[in-house]
Structures are given as C-alpha cells and as structure tokens.
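Hi again,

Forgot to attach this to my earlier email, sorry! This is the prediction with zinc ion bound. I've pasted everything inline since the attachment limit keeps bouncing my files.
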Amino acid sequence: MKNMIVLCVSFLTLQAYEYHLKPVELAKDVYCFFGAPENISKENGGNMVNTCFVQTKEGFVVIDSGPTFSYASQAYNEMQKIAKLPVKYVINTHDHDDHWLGNNFYKSKGALLIGPRTYEQNVVTGMETRMQRALGKAIYGKTKIVELDTIVDSNLTLKVSDKTFEIKQMVDKAHTEGDLIVYMASEQIVFAGDVVFNDRLSSLRDGSIIGSLKALDLIDDLHAKVIVGGHGYATDANATQGFKSYLSKMKKQILEALENDVGIDEITKHVVMLEYKDMKLYDVLHSRNVFEAFRELEMYEEESTEEQGIEYIDFTKALKKQKKKIRLL
Ligand SMILES: [Zn+2]
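Structure tokens for the complex follow:
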C-alpha cells in the first residue's frame, strides 16, 4: 500500500502542469490565450500572461511564447486542432520572462525566434529566471533559455504568405527599454505586449511613466479595432484607456505633490489613488509605481503651469514640446 502511494505521488509529480488553454478567436485567423490577471504562482503555473497566434497559409506566427515549455507545447496542441500547420515565427514583445519562456519549445519545432535588443542584453543562457524560482522544477520542466534568431533594432516588416506583420519598436523606454508591438494593418489589430495592461495594475519597475504614456498614444494613433495587451481581457479599440488614465492621474498628482515640496519619503501617502484600490495587484504594485514615477518625474520639467491641468489626450502635443526637457534617471 505504502509503495502504491509513493508510486502515485511520483507519477503525479512527473505529469506536466495542465494549463487548460482555450484559444479565443479575435478576428479571422487571429487567436489569443488569456492568462489570469494576477501574479505568478504555482497554482496558475505562470499563466498570467496573454499570448496570441495568427494562422497564415504557410503556418502560424506566434506573438509571445508564454511562461514555460509545457505552456507552449499545450498552446501548440491547440493550434494543431485548428490547422495542421507548422509554427514559422515567434515574435517576443519584450524581455520579461512570462512572455518568452516557451521559446525553446518552438525552437525545437523549427520556428524562427524574433525579439528585441534587450533580450540579447538581459537574457543570459543558464541564468535562473523569476519564473523558475516561483514555479519550481516540476512545472518549469523542460523550459530552457535559447538565443533569438533575429533581433529587431527599430522596425521590421514580416510577410508570411497572405499576412503582413509590422513589428515596431517603441522609440522611448515604455514598459521596458525595448518594447515591440506587432501591427497588422489590413486586419486593424495591434498586439501591444505590456505597453497595454487591463484588469490589473502594471509595474513601472523597468519602465517609464512618460514613455508609457507616449507609447499608449502611438498605439491609439494606429486606430486599430482590436488591441491586445500583454495582460487582461479587454481587446477593443479602447483597451488602452484604463491604463492611460491610471498613469495620467498619477503623473498629475505627483507633479502637484512636487510643486508642494512633498519628498520621496512621503509621496506614496499623497498619491494613493483610492479609485484603483479594488484593481488586482493594487496592494502589491501601486506604492512602488508611485515611488518609481516620482523618481522619474522629479527630473521632469513642465513647460508652463497651464499644462498641469492637461488630461492625457493632450499629452502627445505637450510631450512633443517637452521632449528635450525629459530626462530619465
Ligand atoms: Zn508581462
């Protein structure tokens, strides 16, 4: 009996984590898997991220490969139920590991990996990842870091039979130093990576509040019908608005606090933004975001007091004027 239990337990630990991935069709030939709007945990297996795939006549193009080898392998099985086609390319939107740790699965299937310069700079083969620490060996399984085949330095247009993918690099640091977005003009779809968040707060730890607002404006200027963020379920033309509004309000309140000589020790008590307190991850991320934004904005000079009251829709104009004055720490 005891041996049976030991056998059952070891059998269970050998089983891959079951992600129960279900693709959602957002337009003809365009599908995404939506992760839970929460932090990484053993319970969710790192499935707190959105990944997408587009079917072309030649094969699939994947946008972000997800948190583990087995996530990517299960995503691939779902794709094969739609069409028995290979995965030709995987585009990584940025260097945070919830978005690309499925790369080695796709590489083993012959896909070409495309990603930002920051992947090459920050991702070192053999290093321990945040996901590895959080998930442990059993869920992390066969996940391995692999090198990219193509680095996108500015913009790249990828034509795969009947579909065109415009891969655009954000000019300034936004969510990270090297965010890529993928735009399909004829389908009016943008895969925005973590430049767009919904249904939970984002983290400014590697990013910039000014750059994020600017990138959100650039995405809105594309007038896409479908905007898929790296996290959260909203995908309509207004999917940028919630995050834009959060950052705009934070910017305004921090600048006001700076005018009133509020220091870094006090800032998180002044910019609480209680209207967001029920948003997922508010408790974990909000104060830290305020702190990071404060450090950036104390180096930022508004051109005139008139602009203090400007809402986010006017920021593009304001930022153009102020571009030279923006300095980041
Ligand atoms: Zn992410």
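Residues 247-323 form one domain. The CA atoms of residues 99 and 193 lie 9 Å apart.

That should be everything now.

G.
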